[in-house]
Amino acid sequence: MQINVFFKTDPDPTPDQMTALETEIGSWTDQVESVTFISKEEGLEEMRETYKDRPEIFENLTRNPLPNKLVVALVDPCWWTR
Q1: Which domains does the chain have, with CATH numbers?
Q2: pLDDT, tens digit, for every residue of 45-76?
Q3: Whole-structure pTM value
């Protein structure tokens, strides 16, 4: 099971803040298998790839609307429901 943690703050978290949070969550080794930082730029590229057959979706974008996120993979998906 993966959990996406989105950061909807203004301004965006600094790289140091994101690294600190990624490290903190990653240290919960009994519950967390991995933590991956996805920048808003990477997220937009993933979205462009997913919807490459629908370029009109992106025609009117004047800025990147996506937030930075952490993708957290849990060791035991049942842990989340406890």
Answers
A1: 2-81 (3.30.70.3040)
A2: 999 999 999 999 999 999 999 999 999 999 98
A3: 0.80
